[in-house]
Each structure stands twice: as structure tokens, then as C-alpha cells.
Amino acid sequence: MSLIFPTYESIGVRSLINCRGTYTIISGSVILPEVRQAMVEASRRYVHMDELMEGVGKRLGQLMGAEFGIVTNGCAAALCHVTAACIAGNEIEKMRRLPDTAGMKNEVITQPSHRHIYDHAIRMTGARMVEVRSVAELEPAVGERTAMIAVFGDAVDRGEVPLADLVRVGKKHGIPILVDAAAERPDVPNVYLNAGVDAVAYSGGKCLRGPQASGLLLGRRDLLWTAFMNSAPHHALGRPMKVGKEEIMGLLAAVEMWVKRDHQADWKEWERRLAVIGAAATAVKGVTTSIRVPRPSNVSPVLLLHWDAAGLGLTPEEAQKQLTEGEPRIEVFTHEDGVSFNAQMMEPGEEGAVAKRIGEILAKKG
Question: How far apart are CA 268 and CA 264, in angstroms?
């Protein structure tokens, strides 16, 4: 019988059990059933994209306690679009010239502790990053070419300059503040918008379990709409970062579900799955467990298995390799004295297969 549609197996690709979390390299998350349904329905009809973004933007604002929201082609695209909006505004000639920023505001203030590989999405607009290392350096760094202040949400608590001071200076000089909160929970009320920032960006394909190729941008309507003008389907720097009607409606469905989901019940289920895995692992002499909860990004319980590699005759890397190459394929992280399991992105029932496999690997060496 011929295939109606291709599958991973039909092209020789192995699927996996995700015990790492919401990482793009292993395809983020499995979308919610409601998201899948919304995307299929959206695919059946045509719509005007500007009208769609206007309608979705209003609804996102209502759901998330924000003035407005837009859907982007991932969180990194949101960073690019907002930066382009801060540099070129909605002036067509300037928009079309980017990343040539000659004669435009093109400086983005940030902190060394807030720099990471994803600020490439900011720099690709032609922006120049200006680093400040203290509150005393902040205001003197502001000049006629300052376009934006960039904040990495994960680094707020360890940054050299408190968020309150960034907001104070930004408001004083009319400089928009953008927060990259890609892997954080978009909780309501929003901690960043309540603090006075102008825009905050999240991944749509992480804890929201929306389309992997989607991002959620919340904040000031005028700034977000200008960001959209610098994006597809409009002809500007962001034109290649197209988000389709299916992703837009899929992300809206994910946000609708986010505010309805029983997050406490989700947490208890993740803990239950980890308990099953932990019980199988600690049945092997010398294996112990601990739990950690990352914050503010990737917030979910993580089970760490610990053992003495020399005593057990098994290194964390060897255990990871066996999990990856075995059947089913299971992806985990290693740490100093073991491997870790994150249950957030596991599908129901997979914990049994994971427990069986890690138990076999450890027992064989124990």
C-alpha cells in the first residue's frame, strides 16, 4: 500500500523521546491537539494577513493582559523585527535600506551578562551593541544614536544594572526596552510589562506548545505594529521571516489553552513521571537522585541521576550514548556525575519505556 503522506520512518529518520526539554535542536515541543486543529482549520481558507494580525493581536492582548500582541516566525524573529522598528520606524525607504543604518539611530544598549548567541537577531539589522557595566555607565551611554535597550530575561537577576534602572532611563529618554524571554513562562500578569518594558518576546514552540516556527511578542501596540510592518508579508528586512496563517492561528490556540491549562496538575504529572524513572534507576546499587528546578527559563522539575563512574563502570557520556542509540531513542543531558531527565516534553506513557531503558543500562554495569 502506498503512503498517503511521508513519515519520519519512510525517509529513514528516527523519532525520539524528549527528556531534555524545549530545545529547538530536537524540535521543541509536540503541539497541543487544539493547536493542530486550529492550524488545519486555518489552512482551509484564505485571509488578508494584515487583518488577521490585527484581529489576533487584539485577542492576544486580551488573553495576556497586554496592550497588543503579534505572532512572529520564532522568538529570534521577534527580536529582529522590534529592533528594525526601533531603527527604521515605519519609513519605507529606511526599512528597505536595513541593514544599512547610515544616518539612523542604530545603537542598542545592553549589559555584558545579557549577551548571548541570539543577539545575532538584533545585530543583523545593522545595530551596534553598546555595553554598560553599571548604573553609573547607563545614562552616559545614551545618545542621539540610541535606538533600543535590550534585556535578556534569564539574566535580569544577575545583571549589573537592575531592570528598574533600565526602565527609568528608557522612559526618560523615550527609548524602547525589549526583553528576550524565549524560554520563560508567559504568565499573567506579565512581570516585564508590569515593570514598564515596551515589548517582551517568547518562543511559541516551547512551554506554550504552539507551532515550533512561531514566536509571541507582547507590548505597546504602536511598537509592535511597526515591528510587523518590518516583517513579512511586507517588504523589509524581516520579509524572509514569514509566519503563515496556520502558525498565527495555531499560536493563538496555544495561548488560549495556556490561560485555561491546569498548571499545577501539569507539574504533578511531570513529578510522577520522574518518580517512575527515578525508582527504576535507584533500584541499582550506588545510584541516587536529586531534583532541580531551573529559573526563570525552562521552568519544570528536572531529575538528576548520580553515580560513581569508576565504581559502576559507566560514564555519563556512555549512558547518554546508549540511550540515544538504543530503542526507543531517548535524548537526555549529562552532568558531572550522571544524566538528567526533564518530563515536561515527554508524551503520556513514555515514562515507562524510559524507566525500563535506563534501568537496563545501569543494571548491566552495576
Answer: 6
